[in-house]
Amino acid sequence: MLVNTKELLNDAEKNNYAVAGINTTSLTMLRAVIEAAEEENMPVILSHAQLHEPYAPIEMMGPLMKAAAQRASVPCALHLDHGTTETYIYKALSLGFTSVMADFARFSFEENVQRTKKMVEVCHEKGVSVEGEYGEMPSNVEGQGRALPEGKTLEYFFTKPEKAAEYVGKTGVDSLVVSFGSVHGIYIEKPQMDYERLSAIRKALPDFPLVMHGGSGLSEEDTWRCIDGGIRKINYYTYMACEPAKQLTGYIADSEKPPYFHEICEYARELMKEKAAYAVRLFKNRG
Ligand SMILES: [Zn+2]
To answer: How far apart are the CA of 170 and the centre of ligand 1, in A?
Structure first.
């Protein structure tokens, strides 16, 4: 069933777990994620990232995601991930998305507040929840954040607790992406999580759903510590999307005749379902 993110995150807050927000860039992936959530009997946030537009145009992918969410036996939100322009956010709204991320963190604090506030007004009128971002996570992928400026360490982008409360108060967002050590994509070195900062943010915003991007690749202990610290949504994609590659290569190489593309997709679906189910389980069970 199709729901908005706000009710999912409220339940997660009440029961101390995190909901997985997973990008689905194809029908194969979409089915893998829904099946994983159904098997685990957990809600899930089906996400479409603006930066994936070239591979999965939102006008084609959005209706597919919506149909899948409506058919699912578990609550599913239809979420725009990293909506970096107002035009694209409006497009998601017109397609029936129930949740959007207004990603203006690359701008100054004031401009971020002003642009996000405007989107909150438009979205709330339609019953759509809004995820804001204050503080940044470095990324080398265009449309997912900026690279760290030369000579700066990760702390340069970290969320400042008092400013986070000001941001939420001024914009009216329903959840907030915070930066305290996680990064997008694959971790090249062991992540250094600043749990004191997370706890200070939590204190400044009591009972408010916090969001972590870059959930792939954190250890189980780190993940659970983040959940205990108030993280209610964790974005997950990279490992599910990259890990099956090795097994798929073997599958194709070992086939006696060239497999049909739909057979490759079916095998990929099984592999990705395992990854998605692992994430959904991990975010639910806190060890
Ligand atoms: Zn992200």
So the answer is: 22
Cα separations (Å) of 193 from 187, 209, 223, 226?
A: 12, 18, 10, 9
What pLDDT is recorded for position 190? Answer: 73
Which residues of the chain are under the pLDDT cut of 70? 188-189, 286-287
What span, in angstroms and rounded, lies between the C-alpha atoms of 147 and 140? 5
- Give 153: exposed, middle or buried? Use CB within 10 Å, 0-12, 13-18, 19+: exposed
Residues 86, 207: Cα–Cα separation, whole Å:
29
- Residues at Cβ < 5 Å from ligand 1 ion: 213
Question: Over the stretch 43-58, which tens digit does the pLDDT of each residue have?
Answer: 999 999 999 999 999 9
pTM of the model: 0.95
Instruction: Give all domains of the chain, ordered by start, each with its CATH number.
Output: 2-284 (3.20.20.70)
Taking the centre of ligand 1 as the mean of its atom positions, its distance from the CA of residue 252, in whole angstroms, is 32
Give the span between the Cα atoms of 205 and 151, in whole angstroms.
31
HSE of 152 in the Cβ direction (CA atoms, 13 Å)?
Answer: 13
The residue length of the chain stands at 287
